[in-house]
Design goal:
The complex is a heterodimer of chains A (311) and B (555).
Chain A (H helix, E strand, L loop, with lengths): L1 H28 L12 H10 L6 H13 L14 H36 L4 H15 L2 H15 L18 H30 L2 H8 L4 H29 L3 H6 L6 H9 L3 H29 L1 H6 L1
Helix pairs in contact in A: 1-12, 4-5, 4-7, 4-9, 5-7, 6-7, 7-9, 8-9, 9-12, 11-12
Chain B lengths: L1 H25 L18 E6 L13 H10 L4 E4 L2 E4 L2 E6 L5 E6 L12 H12 L17 H5 L11 E5 L2 E5 L7 H5 L9 H7 L16 E7 L3 E6 L13 E6 L3 H9 L5 E4 L2 H8 L5 E13 L6 H7 L2 H9 L3 H9 L4 E2 L15 H4 L11 H15 L9 E5 L3 H18 L3 E5 L2 H9 L5 E6 L7 H4 L16 H12 L3 H18 L2 E13 L3 E2 L16 E2 L2
Parallel strand pairs in B: 1-10, 14-15, 14-16
Antiparallel strand pairs in B: 2-3, 4-5, 5-7, 6-7, 8-9, 9-10, 11-17, 12-16, 12-17, 13-17, 18-19
Helix pairs in contact in B: 10-13, 17-18
The chains are: A mainly alpha (311), B alpha+beta (555).
Chain lengths: 311, 555
């Protein structure tokens, strides 16, 4: 087991290194640079290049970056002058994670519930309704849904705030999380409900359900104890990537609801060719995804010994 | 394992039920507006949407957000308000007869931590601006001062050689390289606002990145800053002119999406909001006030005389061909269809809001080269002349490339122009829309045919547009050059007589516009709506916009 973990760890580290190296050199290939500014003269640009160490050869800059990275120093943003990338990650990542966790809880629980209801009412009205909901969820883009909900609940009915994330110090509470959570989770909810429905229907024709019925268990017992429990297993495989996707922020939802999250930062960084920010965010997202995969692999290994052996 | 999982899922289910229950319980409780129970005068609070300030350090910041916020937090020697120079930290000043020496006399004023604002603070800040080690993007603002450029480009390393001397705590003497009629208006700009040596040394790069890592001397105090979410300023009771400051507090919400900002305005969360396109008419139809102002920016086509390839360059280098492109465009139709506001067709290089000798430059030098509507007859005759000069025919014309900004509105602009060129001239253009920085790089490298570009004024003088097209100048990406034009511009830069200077610029303007390396399209108007109780918000083309310094709320 330890050898298995060690091996996975080494592979993960190499993946991070490849990611850093590729990103480092690829951003430099973009036309323009962080200082492309219509008002600037070549001399001033030279001063800036010197200030940020860009006058040094690229391999030297790369070595320096790796050195800093080893000390977990991601550098200083070039758009938000003087603010460290670490500092920006520290303020924005928790907000996105908070929103992401809410969206996961909402999407997975409601999605599973709807899937179960649909399966139990196969081909009836409730089933058709969930199919309809699922199609809506997958096909409506986030920004359309955000604009729609904002207009209905924020502008017209005035039940919920239009935008801004909660901030207890300013008296902005839970109500600020509702619309963004709904918008962010809706697509996932749709996927999970369809998946759960299919899974439920597959399980229902298995022998052990027949056995359970045959030995005289009540329909409720069969559904809760046997059908739902087994139908949920395939869902676990979907949880890892879903959590990773929702927790790392959404540009669209964060922009539409003026949420100070990390999803927005990547777009700002790219538009400004803010090298340290682009690199820092890529590493952050990369490490997060790799960590999620690593954990998933470990869990698989624990659950199913065959996976360990196969490796 | 299965049991734990089931347990987790059950918990999730319960939680989600809890969430839905909370939703129902809490929603009606959201109040629209809570009147304060106190009978005392209600604090005057202005609430606006804004972006995150990228750099409050005055010698580092260059963007509109930082300029706008620092207009409230800091104060330079003078204050620029509504295009006029007002006394700021300097209560009076003298200008020598040759226009080269400015002597500023500072008033007794305090930083927010109680220290006195001194002439030495300004001496330090201005040296810091041109110090190459600071790497200020706007260091060129200091090039007007003796040795400013030499220090910034490393020819002189001794900072004390800069033409700025603190004679004593309250007297600052500035020596300019050449007379500059608009130097006072420059002195009020962000780059010349003071930073403080002890704090810059203490915080280094982080100066101005947090409320407690910044010192201020302006009419408002910095109170809150939750990055990317919101920030707030409050009236500074110790400001020398506190009686003129009406607002108690300004609350900024970071909101970058225009549609969200409009929704927030309609829900009553903010007091003013920008409007574009269809929203302008929607608000007018609803009987709500819609205000407009010229923001000073001119959008134009710049033509690369070399072309992206020799095939296109051959035509673009021809003046008649460029004139044909310009006459084929119906500027007013483009504005009406896309901007849907009071933007003006670009008839010349200098927009209307810049200062001349005593009045607006365009008023003192009236002229209009490009018509508001397309003149297809004139366009065709210029095209024919061009074809004759190049000894070729229409069917041999290559397809040209129109370099354009990203975004829907820019695409509409591009499509409208493509269409007009095709209809009126039979000239084909392909559009290339790319990220701003990449577009700028391509333009600088002259890897384009025609570029849809814009320029905003840096200071209140026609020169801010006039010196763009000097041959081999840093901003001239067209390859165009004219000896007489350059002679006039370089002469105007050192001319002490303002009337003569204005005449020289006007002649140069006529040369560059009629040669058409640059084809003006429109001078931009912007629109916004605002609650009736908000009074005295100044919108301006230069410096802080919007300027809230003397804004009031009268409910």
């Amino acid at each position: 087991m330890l050898r298995y973990i060690g091996k996975r760890l080494v592979i993960s580290l190499i993946t991070v290194w490849v990611l850093v190296t590729l990103t480092f050199f690829l951003v430099r290939l973009l036309p323009g640079d962080p200082f492309t500014n219509p008002k600037m003269t070549p001399e001033i640009k030279a001063n800036l290049n010197k200030y940020y160490g860009f006058d040094k050869p690229l391999p030297v800059q790369y070595a320096r970056y790796l050195g800093n990275l080893a000390r977990f120093d991601l550098g200083v943003s070039m758009k938000y002058k003087g603010r460290t990338v670490n500092g920006i990650l520290k303020t924005t990542a928790p907000v996105s994670a908070d929103l992401g966790i809410r969206a996961v809880i909402f999407a997975v629980s409601t999605g599973l519930l709807l899937g179960i209801i649909a399966a139990l009412n196969k081909d009836k009205v409730l089933d058709k309704l969930t199919i309809f909901l699922a199609i809506l969820g997958v096909s409506i883009p986030g920004f359309v849904m955000a604009a729609f909900l904002q207009f209905i609940f924020g502008v017209k009915l005035r039940w919920l705030p239009v935008a801004q994330w909660m901030n207890p110090a300013k008296g902005m509470g839970f109500e600020h999380t509702i619309l963004p959570t709904l918008c962010l989770g809706f697509g996932t909810l749709a996927v999970f409900s369809r998946f759960m429905r299919t899974s439920m229907l597959e399980v229902v024709s298995t022998d052990y359900i027949k056995t359970a019925r045959a030995k005289g268990l009540s329909p409720l017992q069969v559904t809760v104890k046997h059908q739902i429990r087994n139908a949920m297993l395939p869902i676990v495989t979907m949880l890892g990537p879903t959590i990773a996707a929702l927790l790392t922020g959404s540009f669209v939802i964060e922009t539409c609801f003026a949420i100070p999250g990390i999803g927005r930062q990547m777009i700002i960084a790219m538009n400004n060719q803010d090298y340290p920010m682009i690199l820092g965010l890529t590493i952050f997202f990369g490490v997060f995804l790799i960590a999620m995969n690593f954990i998933t692999d470990l869990v698989y290994g624990l659950v199913d010994p065959r996976i360990r052996v196969a490796k | 394992m299965k049991k734990t999982l089931a347990l987790v899922l059950v918990v999730l289910l319960v939680l989600s039920i809890g969430l839905t229950a909370c939703k129902q319980a809490e929603t009606p409780a959201t109040p629209d507006a809570t009147p304060t129970p106190e009978v005392k005068a209600e604090p005057k609070v202005l609430r606006v949407g804004a972006d995150e300030p990228p750099a409050l350090d005055p010698q580092i910041g260059t963007d509109q957000v930082s300029i706008g916020l620092n207009n409230l937090l800091l104060e330079g020697l003078v204050r620029i308000h509504d295009g006029k120079v007002q006394p700021g930290m300097a209560e009076k000043w003298e200008i020598s007869a040759d226009g080269l020496t400015y002597t500023f006399h500072l008033r007794d004023a305090k930083w927010n931590d109680g220290k006195s604002v001194t002439a030495q603070d300004f001496e330090y800040s201005w040296r810091r601006l041109v110090d190459p080690k600071t790497a200020s993007e706007y260091a060129f603002q200091g090039y007007y001062i003796v040795n400013g450029e030499e220090i910034n480009t490393g020819k002189i390393t001794d900072l004390t050689q800069l033409g700025v001397k603190a004679v004593d705590e309250k007297t600052l003497v500035v020596t300019l390289k050449a007379p500059c009629t608009y130097f006072l208006s420059l002195a009020g700009f962000l780059s010349f606002m003071p930073s403080r040596e002890d704090k810059v040394t203490e915080f280094g790069e982080a100066y101005g990145t947090e409320v407690d890592k910044f010192v201020t001397n302006g009419p408002f105090l910095f109170k809150e800053w939750t990055h990317e979410a919101n920030y707030a300023v409050e009236k500074n009771p110790n400001y020398w002119n506190a009686a003129a400051i009406k607002l108690d507090r300004i609350e900024y919400t970071v909101v970058v999406d225009a549609a969200t900002a409009i929704n927030m305005y309609e829900a009553g969360d903010i007091d003013m909001v920008g409007l574009t396109g269809n929203d302008i008419q929607r608000f007018k139809d609803a009987g709500k006030p819609v205000y407009d102002y010229m923001d000073g920016a001119l959008f134009y086509l710049q033509v690369n005389l070399k072309g992206k390839s020799p095939a296109t360059g051959k035509f673009l280098a021809n003046q008649n061909f460029r004139l044909a492109l310009g006459y084929a465009l119906d500027r007013q139709a483009i504005i009406d269809a896309i901007m849907k506001n009071k933007s003006l067709p670009g008839s010349r290089l200098v927009p209307d809001n810049l200062m001349g000798v005593k009045d607006r430059y365009t008023k003192e030098n009236p002229w209009s080269f490009w018509p508001a509507n397309a003149d297809s007859a004139k366009a065709k005759s210029h095209l024919e002349l061009a074809l004759k000069e190049l000894n070729t025919t229409v069917d041999k014309l290559p397809t040209f490339e129109l370099l354009n900004y990203e975004g829907d509105r820019s695409r509409q602009f591009g499509e409208a122009m493509q269409d007009m060129w095709l209809k009126n001239l039979g000239v084909k253009f392909e559009m290339k829309q790319i990220v701003f920085k990449e577009k700028l790089q391509l333009a600088t490298n002259q890897q384009y045919d025609v570029d849809f570009a814009g320029w905003g004024p840096d200071y209140d003088d026609a020169m801010t547009f006039m010196d763009l097209f000097v041959k081999d100048g840093g901003h001239n990406n067209t390859g165009w050059g004219d000896a007489r034009h350059d002679e006039l511009i370089n002469g105007a830069k050192v001319e002490a007589d303002p009337v003569k200077r204005s005449k020289m610029m006007f002649e140069a303007e006529q040369i560059v516009v009629s040669s058409a390396p640059v084809i003006p399209i429109y001078a931009r108007a912007r629109n916004y709506t605002m609650q009736d109780y908000v009074k005295n918000v100044v919108r301006s083309a230069m410096g802080a916009d919007p300027d809230f310094v003397y804004t009031d709320i009268v409910k």
